[in-house]
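Quick entry, no commentary yet.
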Amino acid sequence: MQEMPPITIDVVSDVMCPWCFIGKRRLEAAIRAVPDLDIQVRWHPFQLDSTLPKTGKDRQQYLNDKFGGADRARHVYSQIELAGKSEGIDFAFDKIKLSPNTLDCHRLILWSRADDLQDEVVELLFRAYFLNGENLADAKVLVRISEEAGMQSDLVEHLLATETDLDKTRQQIEKAQESGVTGVPCFIIDSRFVVAGAEKPETLAAALTHANETRTSADMPSFGSS
């Protein structure tokens, strides 16, 4: 009997999205709730704002432009802070001085797949931005994160100075949009089921269980195969 491959979870995400950080925590809890399942998580790029300059934009100006004023922004982010605390995340939005263009972050995540370090890199990017207020548009920060994750940081430093995989990253973002992804996080389970938004762990766990129970031995198309 042919052994079934792992259940894939393709996570479409942007590292400047606080709900994606919350979604990661909830996904981790969901996976812990189904310990008997063989699961493979893969991360895919999305950009909440592709118009941001490469060097980023002043955070306060970005929030004013997006929400129409500081009061509205504070209200929105107060709700996110509460949701974060429930998942053990102490968001430090006041530390963030720059809203980054995240294309280089997504290139780093793409390169980390070769060493099976995507989860580590995504986690470190989220922590650097949302807990420490670091500038993710700064190549030095990304190189340091690559080293902390166990990547070849000297190679990363060289690649970031080039346009390597920029077009590929943009194409992957376009592919997600063409597949119907309009917001993040988005979890594509076993290339068959979609859970949109940072749903509760029990919802994600139920989707994983259902995916496992309805699998067949036929080859399945893969969201992240190209």
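second:
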Amino acid sequence: MASPAQQGDDSDDDMDGFMERFKKEKYSNAFSEDNWEEEFNTVPMFMKTAPEDIDPMKHPELAAIQSIIHDDDRPLEEQAKSLKDEGNDYFKDKKYKKAIVSYTAGLKKNCSDSNVNAILYTNRAAAHFHLGNMRSALNDAVIAKKLKPDHIKAFIRGASCCIELKKYADAFQWSEEGLKLQPTDKKLLELRATADRHKRAAERDARKAKVKEKKQRSEREALLKSIEERGIKLLIPRQGPKRSSDVEDDGDGGSSKAMSGLDLDGLCSAEATGAKVFLDEQGVIHWPVLFLYPEHQQTDFISAFSETSSFMDHFCLMFGAELPPWDTNRQYSPHNLQLFFEDQQKESLYEVNPDTSLLKSLQHKRYFVKAGTPSFVILVKGSPFCEKFLSERKTHRLK
């Protein structure tokens, strides 16, 4: 067995031999001008960005550092702080989803330091905020405030989230509570001013909407009352099973859903046409009216047909000066037309005198206004199509 002195001599010989070889042989793994930046980026101390997934075989140094950060043998407070710092690094790089994962992992450590936990919640709230998860962010801010009632960032997060959620009164309250703790905080002052401005605007808009709704309700009630007083019947879409109380009998075996009280379901034409029945300041009702031309499969729509006007008044405007382009035979002149309304339940037509008013035709016992839009069929008097069309249907003349 060699003595210590001999072992020392052997070591010196080995080192001397290594140095001699080092002088003669070129180091194969040395940095070069071409690869030095790439090589430096493999050293943890000089890395600009860490790899997404750390493979212990490829990056043993990083794996060792990561194991230190997540060392379960360390106190929970230290583990939570390390995960907080990790989340902060992700946050600075705008990797908010990864930041949330780190903050959540830190909270799962359940450390006893309420200050650390409050910061984890407020930081996670900030990450949620940047991702647009406002409700999650607000929930985290609420918990952070409970853990640390004087944590100003919790109030800032809470107020910011409430503004984004359009909860302006809540945002104002968050700001006020925070300013009681720190009256000169610039961010809280800005948030309070913003919340107050939006809150006042929302309250003003709500008052205007309430006044407008009240006015519209009053106008609708007056309109329906006028319709009822005139004896005009609205065909209301039936919902659910048919009940005996839903129909009224006219004595001739016909029936239809009756207009009940101030029900608006029978006045829904605005949804399809953009026009609706209205009552003017003189108490005259104006209806949207649809004319059908079955021979040519065409239609005309009058958005505001006064109940006091006659059909002939409109015929003269529609067909007096210029005939429609689809009337190639030039037959649709005002005095060469027949007007009908259809009774769908009885599958019959009722002829209307064009010189009568719209109101008189709507008051007929077999006329039911469908979807708030009266409709009428127009035919050319004596034409082959007219004779065939009428021969296939039961026809009545208005008395």
